[in-house]
Amino acid sequence: MRAGIAGDARAYRSLLEALTPRLRALVARSLARAGASGADMEDVVQETLLAIHLKRHTWEPSQPLAPWVWTIARNKTIDALRRRGRRIELPVDDLAEFLPAPAERDPTEGGDVERLLGSLGERQRDIVRSIGVEDRSIRETADRLGMSEGAVRVALHRGLKALAALYRRSEA
Fold first, then answer.
1. Are 1 and 15 in contact (CB under 8 A)?
2. Which fold has domain 2-84?
């Protein structure tokens, strides 16, 4: 972290790559202890990495890094649990015979998607289309665009957030 703050991008990237699997394990355990599913784990990890990046200037180099990182991860996990609220999760397989058949696809839906995608910047549009429409993986998209997987995840999250806001405005 010290080298990263001093401007060494390679060291900073190595730090984030080394932290990611540990964060995944920590967040997964925290979510499980809270009785939540691991479905939100990757989002919490990405939010934690982003917070580390944005708040790295607040870390005291004379202090150990791990407690600072774990505090951010704990806070992001708590935020996710609060957003999630109390929900009971039931396996859908048990209800399959009672659920209605899937509705036919609305033929105008594709036009809406393309119209909304057109309002995004070129890079975000390419990422959202690749992952959300063409069903490509994060890794595949990152390799194709010459980006890190983390950067693709962040851009995807931001693109989807922008699309949701645009959709809400168009519905109103």
1. yes
2. Rna Polymerase Sigma Factor; Chain: A (1.10.1740)
The pTM of this model reads: 0.49
Closest of 118, 43, 31, 122 to residue 81, by C-alpha = 31
Q: Please name the amino acid found at residue 71.
A: T
For 41-53, what is the mean pLDDT? 93
Q: What is the CATH number of domain 107-171?
A: 1.10.10.10
Give the distance from CA 111 to its chain's centroid: 26
| Contact between residue 55 and residue 61 where contact means Cβ atoms under 8 Å apart | no
User: Would you say 62 and 5 are in contact if contact means Cβ atoms under 8 Å apart?
Assistant: no
- Helix, strand or coil, per DSSP, at residue 89: coil
Q: CA 115, 121, 123: angle at the middle one, nearest 5?
A: 115
Looking at the chain, list the stretches that DSSP marks H as alpha helix, in order from N- to C-terminal side: 2-5, 9-33, 41-55, 65-84, 109-117, 122-128, 138-145, 149-171
